[in-house]
Amino acid sequence: MLERSIERVTRIPALGPGFDGERHKAALVIAPDNLPATDPFFLMADDNITQGGRFGAAHPHAGLETVTFMLNGSMEDTGGRLEEGDVEWMTAGSGIVHSENATVSTGMRLFQLWLILPEAQRNMPPRVQILRRTEMPEHTEPGVQATVYSGKLGNAAAPTKNAVPVTLVDIRLESGANFASHLPATYNAFVVGIEGEVEVGATAEKLAKNSVGWMGPMGDGDSLLKLQAGDKGARLLLYAGQPQNISVVAKGPFIAGSQEELAGYYAAYRQGKFPHAGKMRSDD
After folding, report:
1. Same domain, 140 and 69
2. What is the pLDDT of residues 216-244, one digit of tens each?
3. Which residues contact 105 (CB under 8 A, 6 or more apart)?
4. What CATH number is attached to the domain comprising 145?
5. Which residues are annotated as a binding site for Fe cation?
6. Dmax of the chain from CA atoms?
7. Exposed e or buried b for every residue in 71-80, given b needs 16+ CB within 10 A?
8. Contacts for 23-31 with beta carbons within 8 Å, 24 or more apart?
């Protein structure tokens, strides 16, 4: 069986000014400038709030999926509330308006990932899936707790609908714990250190908090990713997905296959043709 190894390591940059004033700090975990290396992951932002209150304004998306992982705190908008550990998986598809009247708590931190969509699904009807941490399947073994938000890990399979095959797992390891995860060898994958330190892959590359380790596709079949926690344990997020190997153009909140398609998104939004995400999701 093919065994994964870390091929390159990056770090989440120091937080800088965000889009919502002095209380909002942000950094790019994945910059949108090297899709061949990050495919199907286009970008990922690390958003942090020092003082709660209104956050941003309603805005559109089209041609992509956003995956919002609430690391700390909470966020609420017209569609409901996301608590720590919850994930909003929003497929923008042909177009959607998002984050209406959003408010956030002091100390909120979230990761927002943008996924490109396959050409055949890029203009699919939009949908919103709310993945509650308390409802997600878990894979457990001695010293290991893995919450599966998308894809499959061991005997835990998430019910999440995917346009692009994606695995998303929150992995918590006790001190010195070992864990091995199976992934399709065709997937591009990365892990983000959230707490502690972990040795990753066949070369036991050490990843600490705010480090990002990348593992490219390996061919066909199955692959194995080995993890071992350091003395203080570790928490990491594992993202893996099937590369789409397509060319895209991006501008603002839209990702398209051509400049003409991009112009069509802008025209449809200006004409009020995008539905509102708040009407597609609600609290349980």
Report:
1. no
2. 999 999 999 999 999 999 999 999 999 99
3. 49, 52, 73, 74, 75
4. 2.60.120.10
5. 59, 61, 98, 100
6. 57
7. bebbbbbebb
8. 23/49, 23/50, 23/51, 23/53, 24/48, 24/49, 24/50, 24/55, 25/49, 25/50, 29/111, 29/192, 29/212, 30/113, 30/190, 30/212
Same domain, yes or no: 184 and 76 = no
Residue 170 lies in a domain: yes
Token pair 């990932």: residue? 113
In this structure, the answer to whether residues 222 and 123 fall within a common structural domain is no
3 state SS of 265: helix
Alpha carbon distances (Å) from 68 to 129, 141, 199: 11, 27, 26
Q: How far apart are CA 165 and CA 220, in angstroms?
A: 15
Let me know if residue 64 belongs to a domain.
Answer: yes
Cβ proximity of 27 and 15 under 8 Å: yes
pLDDT at residue 21 is higher than 90? no
178-225 pLDDT, tens digit per residue, is 999 999 999 999 999 999 999 999 999 999 999 999 999 999 999 999
Q: Are residues 125 and 140 in the same domain?
A: no
222, 250: one domain: no
Mean confidence (pLDDT) of the chain: 95
Annotated binding site: 59, 61, 98, 100
Instruction: State yes or no: pLDDT of 282 exceeds 80.
Output: no
Give me the domain span that covers residue 35. Answer: 13-133+246-279
- Residue closest to 17 by CA, chosen among 4, 7, 26: 26
